[in-house]
Write a structure and sequence with these properties.
Layout: E1 2-3, H1 10-19, H2 21-34, E2 44-45, H3 50-53
Antiparallel strand pairs: 1-2
Helix pairs in contact: 1-2
């Protein structure tokens, strides 16, 4: 579980390393369209790799 970090931050790069850059950009596009909040006290996301989602 992680917050929505600024898209060009090193924290975004860390999350992208786990989940893939394209997938995270899609998630961020959704978050922006829906008005999610960024930074430390913003909305959070639960990130599950594909292998875990199939269980």
């Amino acid at each position: 579980m992680t917050n929505f970090h600024l898209p060009r931050s090193t924290l975004f790069m860390l999350v992208s390393a786990l989940m893939g850059r394209e997938r995270m950009l899609e998630a961020y596009d959704h978050a922006i369209r829906e008005g999610y909040r960024f930074y430390s006290y913003g909305d959070a996301s639960l990130l599950l790799p594909d292998a875990v989602q199939r269980i």
